[in-house]
Amino acid sequence: MKLRPGPTLAFAYVAYTTTSKLSPTIGSRGRKEDPLDCRARMAVKFDVKPGVADINDYEDAYVDCTVWLRRLVMSSSSSTSPPHINSTPSHETPRHPTLLLSQPHSLASQWSNLCPPAPVLTEKNLPDQSNKVFIVTGSSGGLGKELISILYERNAKVYVAARSETKAMAAIHEVERSLPGSTGQLLFLHLDLSDLSTIEKSAQTFLERESRLDVLWNNAGVMMPAQGSVTTQGYELQMGVNALGSFLFTKFLHPTLAATARTAPRNSVRVVWVSSSAAVMAPSPAIDFDNMDYKKDESALNKYMRSKAAVVVHSSEFARRTAGEGILSISLDPGSFMTDLQRTTPTAMKLLLRLISRPPKYGAYTQLFAGLSSEITEENNGGWVAPFGRLVEGRPDLQEESLGSKFWEWTEEQVRPFL
């Protein structure tokens, strides 16, 4: 497969390394541009029927772009033939296959997430966090480890919630050695989200030590494990950890969050639900209530996307159900990074991530914004944050009240035996 001259985009790179059935042509306004210069005007055109000249002709350009990316990435994660770009699932409006993508312009889209603007909240301008109490789940490595480092540097008390005490303590000691001037605290909290029967004990351990909780970052997650991987209770591992486990942990901590909000500064008490761009690319309907047990099997990538969509639904519904309590609920896409989370992903996807990824600290900046930025208020409660700290419109169907209510009740039913 031969690409015509022009910038080699991440999207084209996936196609080039995984399949010869897709034949994109890549062009730009001249050839002196940096191949990864996000300010360039770029076209992604397939050698099929002529299409629309500008992606901005579509009112839902965000969805158009991500639907195309989902099909392309799915082809890289499967040994089966890649999907035909012309084929249109029943839930999608037929599209022309030619998209002209402009950056920057009016696209608040997945495309812009490849090249986000600079973060607005970092360790350099974060105010002192003395007397604040935080929990960051899954913080023994990756984005979570970067986040606890920033919080500790600004003198916060941070609970490092993780399954492995060995890894968590190694992370704690590394951060403490690197920041000898901090007056904060890093404390290990055992948390295994893959076993619902253990989560109450983890929450109770925290509650025995603390009477307040300012921000809970639900950062822990699983991405594309071996097919057939399940939790202790038999749930598909990604849905079980990313959605059910985090939901139950949050439920146990909810009363303390509400109590903290009664005396804390307005808009400062929050639950941050770490989702992914995968939520936007999830099939529709994102929550398939007829196949929650996956008796009709799907790819690991599809399951991952559904689990991350579920995180967004939980965040939106939590915001509705806690309205008036002073707790803000925010979901986010941290960005693209290479961390231990991707250890089981296919090689082609790892190559893509290496091409577009940033240092993990940038993902921590997205989480920092969601958890501590003054830009987030009651007005955008239940909203969506994009890399590396931008309030943008999320995927509309994931924020629908009817879906949120139904999925919340389904989740409540699953966790009821462990309350």
Automatic annotation (TrEMBL):
<dbReference type="GO" id="GO:0016491">
    <property type="term" value="F:oxidoreductase activity"/>
</dbReference>
<feature type="compositionally biased region" description="Low complexity">
    <location>
        <begin position="76"/>
        <end position="91"/>
    </location>
</feature>
<dbReference type="InterPro" id="IPR002347">
    <property type="entry name" value="SDR_fam"/>
</dbReference>
<dbReference type="Pfam" id="PF00106">
    <property type="entry name" value="adh_short"/>
</dbReference>
<protein>
    <recommendedName>
        <fullName>Short-chain dehydrogenase</fullName>
    </recommendedName>
</protein>
<dbReference type="InterPro" id="IPR036291">
    <property type="entry name" value="NAD(P)-bd_dom_sf"/>
</dbReference>
<feature type="region of interest" description="Disordered">
    <location>
        <begin position="76"/>
        <end position="96"/>
    </location>
</feature>
<keyword id="KW-0560">Oxidoreductase</keyword>
